[in-house]
Protein 1
Amino acid sequence: MGDIVLTEPIVIVGQQVAGEAAKTRKALEQLIKKVNTSAFDIADLLFVIKKNGYYEGYPTFAEFIKTLDLKQRKAQYLCRIVEVMNAIGAVREKYEPLGVAKLREITSLDVDGEWVNPETGAKTPLKDFIEGFIEKGKDLTLEEIKQHVRTLKGLIGENNLVFLHL
C-alpha cells in the first residue's frame, strides 16, 4: 500500500472549539471594557454639565437629560457616582475597576452622613465606609456590597424593606 498524504492539517475538534471560545470570550471582554469606559466617560461629562450649569436653554438639569438618548435614571446615577467620588477625593483609576453596578450601590450612601453603631452608639462618617468600599470593593460581590449598604442605611431587621409582587 502507498503512503497517505494529507493536504489539510490535522485538527482536533475540541482544541479548535476551545480556541474559538477563548477568542470569542476575549472579544466580548474587550467590548465590555469599552462599554464600561464609555459609561464612565458619560458620567464625567454629565457631572461637568451639571456642576457648571452647561444645560443652558433648559430650566433644569433633569429637563436637559430628557433631550438626550439616555434614560433619566441612568444619567442621574452616573452623575451621582462622579459627584460622590469627587467629594471623597477618589480618582477614576481607583474606582472605575469596581464597575457601575457596585458604584451605584456604594454612592447611594450619603457622603455627609454618619452611621451610628446600634450596640455602642459610636458614630462613623459614611465617607469612611465609602472609601473602604472603593479600596476593597473589587474583592466583594455586588450582593455583599448591597447587604453592607443596607446595613449602613439601617434597612435590616424590623426596618428591612419587603417587596410585594402583585
Note: The chain is about 60% helix and 5% strand.
Protein 2
Amino acid sequence: MTEQQTYLMAGVMGFPVMHSRSPKLHNHWLSKHGLIGHYMPLAVGPDGVEAALRALPALGFAGCNLTMPHKETAIPVMDRLSPLVRRIGAMNCVVVAPDGSLEGHNFEAFGYVDSLAQEVAGWRADAGPIVMLGAGGGARAVAAGLLERGATKIRVFNRTPERAAKLAAHLGPRVEALPWAQRFDAAADAALVVNATSQGMHGQPPLDMRLDAAPIAAVVSDLIYSPRETPFLAEARRRGHPTVNGLGMLLNQARLSFKAWFGVTPEVTPDVRSMIEATI
C-alpha cells in the first residue's frame, strides 16, 4: 500500500454550524477507509465566506460542504460550476482542484430523491402534485431533483413571495409559486409535501403548516434531521402519512462529496445510519 503523502482535510462551512452531524459521518468514513485526515466544522458568517473559501487551497483542504446561509451566496466565488449548480442556483459542495481553483457542485438533489426512493416503497416523483415550503438553497436542490425524476407539478410557498417566484422562474413551467396563504388548500391533491425551511429545527419555531386537507397517502418529508422528528412530521405520522426526515438526504449527498474530495465512495450502511441517529 502506498504511504499517504498529505493530511486530508475537508469541512462544513456555515453559520451556525456546530449542530452538523457531517463531521462525525465523514470522520468515520476517513477512519474506515484508512485515510489520514480530518473533517471539521467551519463557523464562517456571511461577511467572511469569500475569504474563507479562497483560503481553502493554501490551507491544504480538499474542499468543503456548504450549509445555511452560503448555498447561494458563495456561487460567485467559484471558478467553475457544475451544470446542476448553474441550473438551480445553489450548491452544497466545494472541491479544490489540483491547480487550486474552486469547483462548485450540488449533491443534495440526488441525495434527497435517493432518500425518498429508499424509505418509501414504490415512491415516484410523478405520482401527483408536490407542495414545497421554502425557497432557499435546499429547496432549489430538492425541486431540481424531483424534476429530474419526473415531477409534473411543484407548488412553492415562501413567506417572502419574491423568493418563491424567483425559484419558479429559474426552474421552469413545472414549478409554480403561490401565495403563502394558499399552502393549506394546495395540499388537497398532493402526493408529496416537503418542508424545506428551517422551521422545526432545534431552536426554531414549528412549521406553520396543517395537513388536514392532504390525502393520507401523501408522503410528508422534512429536510431537517435534528430533531429526528419535527412537530410537522409528528403530526403527519399521527395522521397516518408516510414520513421521511432529512437524515437520508444528508447521508446520500455526503457519499458523493466524500468521493469528490478523496476518490473513495463510502457506503451508507445500517450501522452508519444508527451511528448518526444516536447523536440526534
Note: The chain has a mean pLDDT of 96.
Protein 3
Amino acid sequence: AFDDELMDDRIAMNLLYVQAVNDIERGWLIATKDQHKQLTSLQQRGSKKEYLRLARTLKFYGFMQFKPCLTDYPQPNSRVIVSSGNRELNFRIQVSSDQVKEGSFKVTRMRCWRITTALPDMNGESDDGQEARLELAFEYLIAKDTLKWITVYSDQAILISMCLQGMVDELIMKKH
C-alpha cells in the first residue's frame, strides 16, 4: 500500500509538472526574467518538485484560461483574454497592439450572471455579420451603490459560467 501511495504521488507530481511547463510555455503563467531563468535551470536538472514549488508562486497558477474573445468592458468590442481562479475573473484587455491592461472581477462582488445567445436575423446573420454567439453577462458592484452589467462574447460562455458557479459553491462550503 505504501508503494502505491508513492506511485500515485509521483504520477500526480508528473502531471502537475507537465501542466506547469505547458502553462509557462504558453504564457499563461506570468514569470519575471529571473524566475524564467530559475525555472529553465530546474527543468534542465530534472528538479520537478522544486520547479513546481516555484511555479505555484507565479501569477495565474491554478487559473483556468479561456480562448481570446470580446467584451463590452471597458468599451464595446474590446479584445480580451479571460481566466478564472482565486475567486475572480481576470481580464487581460488588448488596449493597443503593444499594450495590455489587466482587470479583476471578484466573485464576491458579482450579484448575478446569465448566459444568452445572440441569434442571427432572418438571413442567418447577427447584427455584426457573424453567426449566433453565446454571451455571458454578469452584474458587478463597480463602486459603492453602483452595479454595472459586463458582457463577454465567447463560445466558452457556458464553461466560464461553470467556473463561476464552482467558485461560488466553494465560498458557500467554506462559510458552512
Note: Residues 113 and 138 are 4 Å apart (CA to CA).
Protein 4
Amino acid sequence: VSLRDVDPPGPDRMLNFDGIDLPVKHPTVIFGDGGSAKSYFALYWAGKMVEQGTQVLYVDWEWTAAEHRERLERLFGPAFPAVRHLGAYRSIREERERITRAIRARQIGYLIFDSVALACGGDPSGSEACTLYWQTVRQFGIGSLHIAHVTKGFNGKSDDQKPFGSAFWHNMARMTYNFRGDETGASALSVGIYGRKSQWGQRKDMAFRVEFEPHRTIIAAIDVKSVPALAEGLPLP
C-alpha cells in the first residue's frame, strides 16, 4: 500500500485503566516477581475491557478456569464480566489454530497470554523461541498482553528493567511495565507499576493498593511515592 492511502491512527489507539495505558492493536509485556499481582491485574483489565464492549480471551498455561472465575467474581461481584478462558498445554505455535478458532467464533478483540515462559515452547533466553513466539502473535492481528517473569541477580535482587530471557521480549513489545509488590499486612498488597518502554513517548509510573476482603478484592490507585518500598523504583528526577 501507499502510506498516503493509509488512515492515520485514531484517538482511540489506547485503552486506559486508572492511568495505565494499553495499546489497542499492539503487544504489551508486564513482568515482575511472583506474588506481584500480574495475573490479577491482567484479569482485572480484561473485565474492564469486556464491560466496555471488547471481547477478551485469556489464554492460560499456568492456572485453571475455576481459579480465574473466583478472582473475577471477587473483583466485579456476582454479575462479573464474561471474560473468555482457554486452557493451553502446548507451545503457542502448536496452540495457534485453537486460538484462531476461538478468536473467530467469539469475536475476540484482545488476547492475554499467561505466561510467555511456558508459551514460547523453548528456552525463553534463546532468540529462536522468542522470535517464533512474536511471529505467531502477529498472525492473530489484534492487541495483546503478555505476562513474563524477571531474572534474579547475583545479589538476590530482580532485574526490574527487562523481562527474563532474550532481549527480544522487551524489544518486540510496543509497551512494557515492571510490577513490584509490597505486602502491607495479611490482607493487603501495594503494587507499583513502572513504565519501562513506550513507543508513544512518555512512560508512566503508578501504584495501587489491593485489598483482599473475605468475599471481594478491591483495587484502588494510590500515590506511588506514598509507599517507601515502591518509591525506590522511581527514576531519580
Note: The radius of gyration is 18 Å.
